[in-house]
Amino acid sequence: MNWTSFDTWLVVTAALCAVACALPGCFLVLRKMSMMGDAISHAVLPGIAVAFIISGSRDSLIMFLGAAIVGVLTAVFTQWISRFGHVDRGAAMGIVFTTLFALGLLLIVRAADHVDLDPGCVLYGAIEFTPLDTIEIGPVSFPRAALVLTVVLLLNLAIIALLFKELRLSSFDPSLADTLGYSSQALHYLLMTMVAVTTVAAFEAVGSIIVIAMLIVPPATALLLTHRLIPMILIACVVAVLSALLGHLGALTAPSWFGFEATTSSGMMAFAAGVLFFLAWCFSPSEGQLIVWLRHRKGPRDLIPPPEIS
Amino acid sequence: MNSLIKSMSPKGDAVDENLTAHPDNVPLAVHDLTVAYHRKPVLWDIDLDIPEGKLVGIVGPNGAGKSTLIKACLDLIPRASGEIGIYGKPYQQQRHLVGYVPQRESVDWDFPISALDVVTMGTYRQLGWFRRVKRAQKERAMEAIEQVGIGHLAHRQISQLSGGQQQRVFLARALAQDAKLYLMDEPFAAVDAATEEAIVQLLQTLNEKGKTVLVVHHDLATVKRYFDWLVLLNMRVVETGPTDEVFTTSNLEKTYGGKLNLLSEAARALQAATR
């Protein structure tokens, strides 16, 4: 294996993306709306296309804005359809994001056919090329994606640090939040905006597959390992970083075992996250399958008898 | 002065009427309240004045709109018409005076949070946006959780508590709100006998301190023992007033329709079976 600074930057970029996603992902998972990230990351496509058609340029800031706006609109439409159409939120999400995604594909193919707006690139990203697109700051050159993702990561961190109490309250008991004067609606849309911005920033660099994986898998893994919210967020971040690192290592080494050249790093990172989840499910010290099996095998011997009835 | 207000207001009479309908010393005044879900009315033309310091039971059959009434009072659901006054003012201005105990099933008890942290949420009203929980709030929450008899479970994650203990967590959270008016949605639903007794004692303590407590209640057998004021509800207010006067067979028949016989027989059979 030949590890270069190229690989280091690739892993750093992916890890920044993974952590930026895992932070809002924790709240998505706890609100039982994990697939919202999936929906938003697909639905932003028409936003990108429309921004391109209107501005006529591939200026990433304009496309970023277009995508972020449509991302938040996805959340708004989903809410409307589930409320006024009397369908559950999952179905409403499905209606909104497939429609928007299809519209986005049409727009790209019809109006932007001759330019470099590749639907495949949107889905799988182009993480292998991120270290090549650099920005000079002083003597050092950083990959542009790493800088963008650092900003998004810090933003997410700041929002969660500032509004931890409010986000936790409205995730656990939105009615109580409303009665206490903390608008659960406003907090919902704040979280949706975080997810939309993170998704858009991340998938430009690394593709929507990792984004969806990192929004959901690290938080779900963390939830198997702890029963407290702050440790959950911290563990989710660690799992996110590990997925990025192990995924890239896997992409470098694993294919040669089967006689292939190399494979896509973003795919392997999503896969690594899945493996980490499986390990947590097996070996979680509190409710892992191994512990459950051992307890079962031991039988009732290690149970503490209930107090005597006096 | 009165005539001046009248002449200044486009609906002078309405202003005057509201002033008398929502006096400051009435914890909860409901006037002409109608609530509908998808054009199907759930509450119809509700008029209520709950006097201060009463332990009030809200009793009625399933689908009578009991929970809806409480949620409407807290502005959690939109109302088709009507006004609600909490000590003479709209709820938005009186949040600090109202404590709320939602139904236990309304939240996910697997949420990664400790009992004490849930109770601490009751103190968030005084904190406001962006402010962090400090020692004063933690101490208030600890006091409340001890008051409901589960101080030793304060640091447990909430899924590790029994149903009765979870209900006590919700009650402690309402206590931590330090309110004057408490609205409780079925606190007695599916709790063990010990918890039921603890809740009753808590209600009486609140009552002795002059608090007003409204409780959505299901068990007709205990109504007389628990509450000194009643609201009999079946989409409309069938009757309201002191329990001794209102809790009569004819009123209950009006509230439950033909179903009462079946219900009371079932209740009697159950009581016989458990004792």
TrEMBL record, chain A:
Protein's name according to its UniProt entry: Metal ABC transporter permease
SUPFAM superfamilies (UniProt xref): ABC transporter involved in vitamin B12 uptake, BtuC
Protein keywords: Cell membrane, Membrane, Transmembrane, Transmembrane helix, Transport
Bilayer disposition of the protein: Multi-pass membrane protein
Keyword hit for Transmembrane helix: yes
One Gene Ontology term, aspect cellular component: ATP-binding cassette (ABC) transporter complex
Residues passing through the membrane, by range: 6-30, 37-55, 61-78, 90-109, 145-165, 233-258, 270-294
Record localization: Cell membrane
Source organism of this protein record: Haloferula rosea
Keyword Transmembrane: yes
Pfam family, one: ABC-3
InterPro entries: ABC_BtuC-like, ABC_TroCD
Organism lineage: Bacteria, Pseudomonadati, Verrucomicrobiota, Verrucomicrobiia, Verrucomicrobiales
GO BP: any one term: transmembrane transport
Protein family according to the UniProt entry: Belongs to the ABC-3 integral membrane protein family.
